Automatic annotation (TrEMBL):
Entry-linked PANTHER family: ALPHA/BETA-HYDROLASES SUPERFAMILY PROTEIN
Keyword Oxidoreductase annotated: no
Chain ranges of the AB hydrolase-1 domain: 27-263
Protein EC: 3.7.1.13
Keywords: Hydrolase
Record flagged with keyword Membrane: no
Enzyme superclass (EC): hydrolase
Pfam families: Abhydrolase_6
The name this protein goes by in its record: 2-hydroxy-6-oxo-6-(2'-aminophenyl)hexa-2, 4-dienoic acid hydrolase
A GO term for molecular function: 2-hydroxy-6-oxo-6-(2'-aminophenyl)hexa-2,4-dienoate hydrolase activity
Length: 277
């Protein structure tokens, strides 16, 4: 990530880390929700190429990476949305392209469909977002015990690129990020609920038909976490939605096939500049 700057600011009293690079129209990258997830690990193969064309801002969400480990048991989803909104206001971002992987993609889809949206969404790139996680994948993701072997299993599930799946240094980096104080607790917390209390909804209901900005849905043709058939269905339900299925990619196409991913995202964003709207 040559030229990228790691920055830390205080947002509404919360220590917040983000990576910034490049100039031009803002492009906000929102990472996924797995153990060890953060801007650094989700977008390390993308920030540099995308920053050649855009001002890239990749935050660590509440509870992830080097952002403070805070979790709201009242409404954890909205707390994270509000936190990113406050960061963007602090940075003076009034309109931006948004690209998110997995949970990050789901959050962007939900915000783009929200009439009172908190995020200034000018266009959407959803990467394996919006779909329920299949049960086999859920078992791997939810039983993580902070061991290197556990992270090896998560990496093997999320990453399909052979050169990374077998790279012990890469797996160890993911493992070390998951060991940051409070990281496991903040990631696992959504599953905790008190006895005899209704379960919390993990996310708002998606309303893809209400999305009114240019949207590109990206799916991995070999995604073991979501049903790959979900991406075409999602794209069809969004007015004017576009679809890109990437061969040789799983749940993180931006990691498995970064060359294809970067080129196609740049091409989509060029066709849909913020200046037109």
């Amino acid at each position: 990530m040559a030229g990228a700057q790691s920055r830390t600011v205080v947002v509404d009293g919360v220590r917040t880390h983000y990576i910034e690079a490049g100039e031009g129209e803002p492009l906000v990258l929102i990472h996924g929700g797995e153990f060890g997830a953060c801007a650094e690990i989700s977008w390390e193969f993308n920030i540099g190429p995308l920053a050649e064309h855009y001002r890239v801002i990749a935050p660590d969400m509440l509870g992830y990476g080097r952002t403070e480990k805070i979790f709201s048991f009242e409404n954890f989803w909205q707390k994270r949305v509000d936190h990113i909104a406050a960061l963007l206001r602090l940075l003076g971002i009034e309109a931006a392209h948004f690209c998110g992987n997995s949970m990050g993609g789901t959050m962007i889809l939900a915000e783009a469909a929200n009439a009172g949206q908190s995020w200034p969404v000018g266009s959407v790139v959803s990467v394996c977002g919006g779909s329920p996680v299949n049960e086999a994948a859920r078992q791997v993701l939810h039983t993580y015990d902070l061991t290197l072997e556990g992270m090896r299993a998560i990496t093997g599930l999320l990453v399909q690129a052979p050169q990374l799946r077998g790279d012990e240094d890469y797996i160890r980096r993911r493992h070390e990020l998951s060991l940051l104080p409070g990281a496991w607790e903040a990631t696992a917390a959504p599953r905790f609920s008190a006895p005899n209390r209704p379960a919390r909804l993990p996310r708002p209901a998606l309303r893809p038909e209400a999305i009114g900005v240019p949207t590109l849905v990206i799916g991995g043709a070999s995604d073991p976490v979501n049903d790959p058939a979900f991406a075409p269905t999602l794209a069809e339900s969004i007015p004017g939605g576009e679809l890109l299925m990437i061969d040789g990619a799983g749940h993180c196409p931006q990691i498995d096939q970064p060359g294809v991913f970067n080129a196609q995202v740049i091409e989509f964003l060029r066709r849909n500049p913020l200046a037109r709207r």
